[in-house]
Design brief:
- Belongs to the IspG family.
- Converts 2C-methyl-D-erythritol 2,4-cyclodiphosphate (ME-2,4cPP) into 1-hydroxy-2-methyl-2-(E)-butenyl 4-diphosphate.
- The structure is a single chain.
- The protein contains twelve helices and 16 strands.
- By secondary structure, it is of the alpha/beta class.
- It has two domains: about 280 residues, Alpha-Beta Barrel (TIM Barrel); about 80 residues, Sulfite Reductase Hemoprotein, domain 1.
- The strands form four sheets. The chain has an eight-stranded parallel sheet. It has a four-stranded mixed sheet with strand order 13-14-15-16.
- A hairpin with a 2-residue loop joins strand 1 and strand 2.
- Helix 6 crosses helix 7.
- The two termini are about 45 Å apart.
- The structure holds iron/sulfur cluster.
């Protein structure tokens, strides 16, 4: 066989789609979404916002796990009343993260009746499908945008297939029935999601909201729908986009579905902030969604958050759980140390650590900039592992 000489074949370029940049400001700090900024990791609490202590504690946990924005639901007057207290509690605890208010149905009332809540939040999420119908809907939307303009807050116009504007959908279904070859209902739904997001963004601009204070999202719960909707949305506007597969589910199903959808879009440069909508196990840790979001971005080479642990799956050469325990404890240790190491050792988050069940692939891993630990055979002897360091292992 003749091997034809090739030129080097490149890996994906990961060129980001150009967008406007929206600034989310709190205290004297800011995080930028889009406009060339790194993809922002965000999360959402599941506490009752009317309980300021429980909510502040969970916001702190999410921020410490690496969430760069935290969304809280603001659904009742009791919740809106406590938002300033949550902000103050976070400031007292030294938790520096912006709060995003999630509004449905009554956001226009809460934002106008509780101006301190409107001020304490750094960004509002508005769902145009949950604001009533007809003129009432237009007035409610205008009222929320007017508050955003008054306090100079950016807004995410977050459309969701489960709460899509009924009137828009009905109108588009009627129009579709008059087509010579009607689209199928799911194609009309996808188009309605995009149209709803874009037309509401245009309306917000007409009402005076700056074009660089708008972020869009169109969330659906099926992977192929999400990819199709965001490809279309990104081709039709230059607003920064919030990516997430809604109702992704629990455990490995939720992680796999979110990763499958978001990876395709991020690879195409689409997406400026991400949230992973995992259902926690009963009593499970809410911070899991932050770690998954970070791992998606880091494994794709888009950002670095914590040293990545590469571990082999093990095989017949491994005869105990020693290397699994080693991999697990190293991974936990690295994540625990990051708040301190990040300040002490700039660049440490880009380090790789490989934990191998035996020396078979250890030398290969050490060619890369990696700290390698490989168990010696016979592994059950628990001899100290073989250690090797790639040439650029440490920054
Ligand atoms: S590194 Fe060794 S133990 Fe791990 S899968 Fe490969 S051969 Fe098996």
């Amino acid at each position: 066989m003749t091997i034809v000489e090739q030129s080097p074949f490149p890996i994906g370029q990961l060129t980001r789609r150009p967008t406007r940049g929206a600034r989310v400001v709190w205290d004297t700090k800011q995080v930028q979404i889009g406009g060339g900024a790194p993809v922002v990791v965000q999360s959402m609490t599941n506490t009752d916002t009317a309980d300021p202590i429980a909510t502040a504690i969970q916001v702190k946990e999410l921020a410490q796990a690496g969430s760069e924005m935290v969304r809280i639901t603001v659904n009742t007057p009791e919740a809106a009343k406590e938002v300033p207290a949550i902000r103050e509690q976070l400031d007292r605890m030294g938790v520096s993260v912006p709060l995003v208010g999630d509004f449905h149905y009554n956001g226009h009332k809460l934002l106008t009746q509780f101006p301190e809540c409107a001020q304490a939040l750094s960004k509002y999420r508005i769902n145009p499908g949950n604001m009533g119908g007809g003129k009432k809907r237009d007035d409610n939307f205008a009222q929320m945008i007017e508050v955003a303009c008054r306090y100079e807050k950016p807004v995410r116009i977050g459309v969701n297939w489960g709460s899509l504007d009924h009137e828009l959908m009905a109108r588009m279904m009627d129009d579709n029935s008059r087509r010579s070859v009607p689209w199928d209902a799911s194609a009309v739904m996808r188009e309605a999601l995009v149209v709803s997001a874009i037309t509401n963004a245009a309306r917000a601009e007409e009402l005076g909201l700056a074009g660089d204070a708008i972020i869009l999202s169109c969330k659906v719960s099926h992977v192929q729908d999400l990819i199709s909707v965001y490809r279309n949305l990104s081709a039709r506007c230059d607003y920064p986009l919030h990516l997430g597969l809604t109702e992704a589910g629990m455990g490995s199903k939720g992680i796999v579905a979110s990763t499958a959808a978001l990876s395709v879009l991020l690879q195409e440069g689409i997406g400026d902030t991400i949230r992973i909508s995992l259902t926690p196990e009963p009593g499970g840790d809410r911070t899991r969604e932050v770690i998954v979001a970070q791992e998606i971005l880091q494994t794709m080479g888009l950002r670095a958050f914590t040293p990545m642990v590469v571990a082999c799956p093990g095989c017949g050469r491994t005869s105990s759980t020693y290397f699994q325990e080693l991999a697990d404890s190293i991974q936990s240790y690295l994540r625990r140390q990051m708040p301190v190491w990040k300040a002490q050792y700039p660049g440490v988050e880009s380090m790789n650590v490989a934990v191998m069940g035996c020396v078979v692939n250890g030398p290969g891993e050490s060619v890369m900039p990696t700290l390698v630990s490989a168990c010696r055979a016979p592994e059950r002897s628990r001899q100290p592992p073989f250690l090797s360091m790639g040439s650029a292992a440490l920054p």
